[in-house]
Amino acid sequence: MFVSTLLLSTLLSLSTVPTDTLRQEQLDEVVVKSNSARQRLNQIQTGAEQVQIKDLTASPQLFGEQDIMRSMQLLTGVKSESDASSSFQVRGGTSAQNQILVDIAPVYNVGHLAGLFSAFNSDALVSATLYKGLLPAQYGGASSAVLDIIGRTGNKSELHGGASIGLLAAKGTLEGPIVKDKASFLVTARRSYMDMFLKLSPDFRHNTLYFYDINAKADWTINQNNQLFLSFFTGKDRTAIDEMVDIRWNNLSASLKWLHHFSGNSYAQSTAYYSGYQTDNGIDFMGMNIWFSGHIRQVGFRQDLHLNLGRYVMETGFQTALLNVKSAEWKQVTLHEKEQRRAWDNAAWVNVVAPLTEKLDVSAGLRLSLFSPLGGSLYYDIEQDGTIGWYYNYGKNQIVKTHTTLEPRLSINYHLSPVTSIKVGYTRTSQNVHALRNQSTSTPFDRYTMSSNIVEPEVADQISGGVFVMTPNQDYDFSVEAYYRQINNVLDYRDGKSFASEIEIERLLLAGKGKGYGLEFSARKNNGKLTGWIGYTLSWSKTKIDGINNGKWYDANNDRRHDINIVAMYRLNKRWTFNASWVYNSGQAFTAPSGKYMIEDNWIYYYTERNGYRAPASHHLDVSAVWSKQYRKRTHQLVLGIYNLYNRYNPFLINFEDGEYGAGTKATQYSLFGIVPSVSFNIKF
User: Fold this and answer.
1) How far does Cα 447 stand from its chain's mean position?
2) Most CB atoms within 10 A, among 41, 235, 334, 453?
3) Residue 568 bridge partners (DSSP)
């Protein structure tokens, strides 16, 4: 709660091909087709959203920044963490249960400025596929969802570029040939300049608030059968308030891919990758003096083989990676503690896509996950009261334990007619990197741990089914999907514990089970001057852990009953496009004190029911107008937008405070945004 309040006060003070198979990058260029109603109807995988960046980023955006992560939140079955967060939650899972891949490499933190901006520059991306829990066998490592993002390659024949300047940030892009028609490069960079405005104010000149990110990609066509891709991404944030608070976090990922084509549309893809996330924070405020850091680092290799066997398509491969996770390192006055561990993660899979009849298509697969925590760090047993019972000293690189999980996958698409299909599916997924957080939103103070001798992998089983219908001319399509998701070994904090209670993270947590279920309704208009969609999600998310809430089922802190998204895009003519979106979220579950008592003149709150209260509903209307004009080889674009048009103050944080002289307790709602206008100017050449 302290961290959320701190971040809030900081911000307020400063502003009072279809992928049922492995995706394929063509040898000459990336060829992208729109995700039409026909594709959505024919796609075997239920719960999959294949989208293009230009479609996602057309909707109105906060501060005028095109943002893939915020646009993802407008899809049916996908929820935002809050108005201030670019992270998303899928079908009862948390954002920490998602895996986000950028050109194969995983990225663990996806937000700038505590989530106000996405870490991904849309100018560097071309498309993305979101799997809402039902994954083909070639995907794993997440118990909720996988977002697979493809980076854009540069132009091999001509030099092109672009620049954009908005209210809070500016960005630029440069791409072109290294060797004409053989090799190309693409570089994009973005930086905020809020820190420059702070220097102009006597009250804030000693504060720092900025972010930047850089994407780069190079590709080389060796010959007609072989191509290399080198991708790089880095981003950094820093928020500092005088000498009281200094919060920093950064991402770094890179991948090198070799794509080799065989005859008959079969190919192999070999990828070496690295991913790193680091957080480094210091607080000297209200009697608290602490420095806290943590990291996740992963280096790995992945081999994919795509075999086109006539009517059948087989995906098979393996992946191996070494992980290094520092759960926490901190200094409190003279106390210096650290917990850091390593692990070896392996997986192998096979997935077959088969049209069994003219009307029946099947995708079936099996994934084997082997996760082995390694020695070289302390391991221990935990007693029922959370104390350490026994320490174990394993040698460096000695396997402590191997967690083996078999994950079957099955999706079926039955075509009732050329315009109607029924889809059903079942998937088991597992996750071995876990996050612990005191609140429903992600922050730089989240603590991470891995499966160990005590912590078991999170294992989720999901079944889903739906009906998909389109009109004969594909102008409209409609869908309704139902799902049920059960997860074992889900983690939560013990009562009364927080991220800094103990350095040994396994002393803070308890494991239990969770479940999520719901309905998703969607209607889309695909053609004409007016396009867009309406989505409604009805969902439940619950948790049951012995030792929490008296062992009874309780609403998860991301439980939210109703979500409505309405998105409209109107193309008036060649120069003007108008966009609007309206979002409604019913109140989110949170924990409130049941009473309080006094110890040594201090009021102490106590809690009896976990997440037994509801925040007020959130809703906002966002609009934008885009003007474009072509000047020979240059394109000029002006984007005008208003976020939260009718100035609704939505709950971001609810804090509990004593009444006068300690009598009674009052709940105070803090809101992050009222109405926010924006303007940005873009130029491309």
Assistant:
1) 17
2) 235
3) 532, 580
Domains and CATH numbers, the chain: 2-684 (2.40.170.20)
Phi-psi domain of 532 (left: phi exceeds 0; alpha: psi -120 through 50; beta: other): left
Cα 589 from Cα 203, distance rounded (Å): 37
Secondary structure class of 217 (helix, strand, coil): strand
List the structure tokens of 645.
């048009």
Q: Which amino acid is at 109?
A: N
Note every long-range contact of 96-99, with CB atoms under 8 Å and residues 24 or more positions apart, other chains counting: 96/434, 96/435, 96/437, 96/442, 96/446, 97/142, 97/143, 97/144, 97/145, 97/431, 97/458, 97/460, 98/142, 98/144, 98/145, 98/146, 98/147, 99/139, 99/141, 99/142, 99/145, 99/146, 99/147
Please give the angle made by the CA atoms of 262, 266 and 268, to the nearest 5 degrees: 75
**Across 632-652, average pLDDT:** 87
User: What is the rounded distance in angstroms from the CA atom of residue 423 to the CA atom of residue 414?
Assistant: 6
Token pair for 89: 């939650």
| Torsions phi, psi for 63 (to 5 deg) | 60, 15
What is the tens place of the pLDDT at every residue in 479-520? 999 999 999 999 888 877 877 788 888 898 889 999 999 999
Query: Is 61:70 a contact under the CB 8 Å cutoff?
Result: yes
Closest C-alpha to 191, from 165, 215, 164, 171: 171
Q: Do 412 and 423 meet the contact criterion of CB atoms below 8 Å apart?
A: yes
How far from the centroid of its chain's Cα atoms is residue 356's Cα? 35
Tokens of 665: 């307790």
Q: Is the CB of residue 431 less than 8 Å from the CB of residue 458?
A: yes
| Bridge partners for 478 per DSSP | 469, 523
Token readout for 304 is 């994919």
**Coil, helix or strand for 54?**
helix
Give the pLDDT confidence of 353-411 residue by residue, as tens digits.
999 999 999 999 999 999 999 999 989 998 888 888 888 889 999 999 999 999 999 99
Cβ neighbours, 10 Å, residue 278: 19
- Residue among 305, 303, 306, 302 at smallest CA distance from 321: 302
Helices and strands (DSSP H and E) totals, the chain = 5, 42
d(CA 332, CA 295): 19
pTM: 0.87
Say whether 338 sits in a helix, a strand or coil.
Answer: strand
3-state secondary structure 446-514: CEEEECCCCCCCEEEEEEEEEEEEECCCCCEEEEEEEEEEEEEEEEEECCCCCCCCCCCHHHCEEEEEE
> Strand, coil or helix: what is 149?
strand
Q: Which residues contact 357 (CB under 8 A, 6 or more apart)?
A: none
Question: Are the C-beta atoms of residues 471 and 181 closer than 8 Å to each other?
Answer: no
CA distance 581 to 43: 27
